[in-house]
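Write out a record, focusing on structure:
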Amino acid sequence: MYLQIKMSQVHVLGAGSLGLLFAYHLRASGRPVTLLLRSQAQVDAFYRQGSRVHLVPMHRGLPSPNLLSSEQLDAASMCGTSPLGPISHLVVATKVCKTHTAR
């Protein structure tokens, strides 16, 4: 008998280089991933551009486009009208200056 483990949804806050790297590897490992973007306009632009994150491995210090791989991601706005629902797994990959003081 095989034990089936449900892959939990992971939300990634921060779509910079570090946030996208985390999102890419989490998605490549089979987890469902949603990028949390600042506005609905950013979400719309992300989907218009194909909603994929590309990873270009380096070979001897040079990009290797023939090894290009990509992963499809979902995106949601933090300020949108549709509720995100509960978030159980959150990766925070933002710059300190972009955060609010916790109280």
